Amino acid sequence: MARAIRSASAAAVLLVGALLAGCTPFSTSLSPAPAPVPTSAPPGLTESRLVVPASLATAPFDRPRTVQAPAGWTVSVWARLDGARLAAWAPDGKLLVSRPESGDVQVLTPSASGAQVATLVEGLTRPHGLAFDGDVLYVAESDRVDAYDYRDGSVSGRRTVVDGLPDASTPELRGAYAHALKSVAVGDDGAVYVSVGSTGNTSAEDRSSSPERASILRVLDGTTTVFARGVRNGTGLAVAPDGAVWTAVNNRDRIAYPYDRAYSDGGGSDLGSVLQPYVNDHPLEPVARLTAGRDLGWPYCDPDPDVDPGASDTAFDYSARPFVRDQETNADGSKLDCAALPAVEQGLPAHSAPLGMSFVTAGLPPLGAGALVGVHGSWNRTPPRAPEVAFLPWRDGTLQSARTVLGGFQATDGSRWGRPVAAVQGPDDAIYVTDDEAGAVYRMAPS
Known about the structure:
Elements: H1 3-6, H2 10-20, E1 45-49, E2 66-70, E3 73-80, E4 87-89, E5 95-99, E6 104-111, E7 114-121, E8 130-133, E9 136-140, E10 144-151, E11 154-163, E12 184-186, E13 192-196, E14 215-220, E15 223-229, E16 236-239, E17 245-248, H3 276-279, E18 285-290, E19 294-295, E20 301-303, E21 319-321, E22 323-325, E23 344-348, E24 354-360, E25 370-375, E26 388-395, E27 398-399, E28 403-406, E29 420-425, E30 431-435, E31 440-446
Parallel strand pairs: 15-19
Antiparallel strand pairs: 1-2, 3-31, 4-5, 5-6, 6-7, 8-9, 9-10, 10-11, 12-13, 13-14, 14-15, 16-17, 17-18, 18-23, 20-22, 21-23, 24-25, 25-26, 26-27, 26-28, 29-30, 30-31
C-alpha cells in the first residue's frame, strides 16, 4: 500500500468510518423516466442500488442508478466533483483529487455529509498524477512535475522535480498531442517515475525524441533517464508491495491483421487489412512490471491475447502474452525483434482504456492484496468496452488475472452514465473511486 495510506493516523480511520455511516440514502420521491437496461453483472458481482445522499442527487443521479459490486457491499456517492481524475490519500486522512481541465487539485475532507471539498492548489497546467512520499506531495502537470510540502490540507514550498516535459506547447508538436496527461509514482528507492504518453496512435518518432515520449522516465537527484520505452500511454503507474514499478497501458487503435491467412471463412489472405472484428479484441492492454531498459514494443510489436493466433473463434488469454509484429509499422521485423521481448505479465481486453492504478496490501473480502485499475471504457470498439474497476490479485510476487469489482456504468445499448478513472483504498479500508463522466467520487465497502 502507498506510504501515505500506511501513515494515516488511527484518528483519521475512525473519523472516515464514523462520518460515512450517516449518509442519507437517495430520495425515492422522484419518478424519473426508465433508465436504459444495464449490462448483466460479471461473475461474482450482484446488482445493487447506488446510494445517493439527497444533497448530491443531481444528474446523473437524479434517477435511481444501479451498480454491480461484490455481494454484501454498499456503493454510495461520497462526493460530487466535476472532472475528477487521479487520486491519492494524504497522511492526514484527506483525499486529494486532480482535475486537469480545471487546472487544480482538490482536497476532500471526510464530513457528516460525505466530504467537504476545497481547493488545494490551482492555476496549474493540466495536473493529473498525484503521489506522496511521507509529507511530500508530487503533482504531475502536462509539462512538469513539482514537489510540495503538505500539511493539514495545504501545501507550501513548491519546487521543480523535472520540467520541459512534452505537451501541446512543445514547438515540434505544433499543438498536436493526444496523450499529454502525465502520471507520477515514487519508488522505494526515492526516485520519481513519470509517464510520458505518445503523441499519437503509431507515432514512431516518439522513440527518438528528446525527452523520449511513449516512455516511463526516472528522475533521481536531478538526473532524468528513460526507465522503460515503447509504452504508448502508461497512465496507470504504481509501486507494488515488493517495490517494483508497474504500468497499465492504453495500447494502440485500428491494428491491422498480422497473419497471412483469411481471418474468417473464405479464401485468400487478410494480411494487413484493418478488420473491425479483429480490431475489437486486439491488441491487449498491457499491465506490466517495469525494469530498467524494458521495452513494451509500441508501435512495432503488439501483445497478442489469442490462444489460437489469428483465428476468428479463438479463446483469449491475458497472462504471460507474447508479441507479434505490427503490420503497419514493422511488417518485416526490421524495426524491432518482437520474439525477443519478454512476455507481458498481465493484460486487460483491448480498448479497456486503463487509467488510475493503485496497490492495496490488505484488502476487504473478497479482494485481498492486489492492484486496482480504473477502466475508462472504449471509444473505438463495436460494441463499446464497458467502464469498470478491475482488480488483479497479488500472489507469488506478481499480479494475477484481472476481474471486475465494480461495474454497471454502461447499458446494453452502449450508453453510459459514468466512467471510473481511479480507485484507491482509504484509511478506513473502503475503496474510493473517481468518475470524471458523472463528476463523482464513490465509496464502496462491505455493508
